[in-house]
Amino acid sequence: MSWSVLSTWKMSLEGCRIAAQQLAKGATAADALVAGIENVEDNPKFCSVGFGGLPARDGHVYLDGGFMDGDTLRFGAVGSIEGFRSPIRIARSLSAYKFNNFLVGQGAEAYAKAHGFEARDNRTSKSQARWEAEKDHAQDLVSYDGHDTVCFLTRDDAGTSCAGVSTSGLFLKEPGRVGDSPVIGSGFYADSEIGSAAATGVGEEIMKGALSHTAVLYMKAGFTAQQAAERAVLELDAALTRRNGSCNAISLIAMDRDGKFGVGTNIVFPFVYASDTQEPTLYLAQRDGMRTVYEAVTDIDSVVQD
User: Fold this and answer.
1) Deepest of 155, 201, 244, 288, by most Cβ within 10 A of its Cβ?
2) Residue range(s) defining the domain that contains residue 142
3) Which region, left, alpha or beta, applies to residue 161 given φ > 0 means left and ψ of -120 to 50 means alpha?
């Protein structure tokens, strides 16, 4: 397999096409990944990422993003950053440094401004209207309302694997809250010698299992990407259910060093995959006992994307 790209949710379908086109033309895994995620960050139709992302309790849109290069194991991340266009691009730039790779809040914003990253008010009339309508009823919201993280895993012709994520986090979150997405090992992880993984769902649950790194360790131990992803998710789901009585929504995508993919989930979960031998394809995964099963979607319009 020459190159491949794997991404979360129906909202990533066009971004996956863009990443695939770039990889087919010889782009690096990192460049293709950033292009794919930026497509989602720039689209106000998607309420959980970038422009039009859902606000925190105070009405502001704070974004999180993370990036990892599987060749060097270098990573960069930003958390609770406001007023900038592309968390993934800022995160990738931070991976170039030896120190200060994870910046949050005002520190992340000062860095982005000093390095010339594009500023943008990510609030839209649609997102603000939803905030106005629901800000006084936060206690009535279920834990999974409006916080789907877009995750991309890419592998290029040279065998380099990268992982990246971007999100606006929980709707009506407390200002300053950071979930799993920008946390290396929980929200994303990449090692070109083994594989990569990225997670979406309730960050407070995902961090309890360092889910992405756990999946990569299972691949290192000899499990396939599919076995690693479903094992990581369902073992964490079982542990949290046993200890706490329940487990909130968690999903995971994984890709091995050869570009073969896997997915684990405890909900109904759409994802997209493309390679040099396969056009971008939307799949729908769901839990089936102690397995995760999935099938290609024939009617794309039937899959709802908030």
Assistant:
1) 155
2) 4-302
3) beta
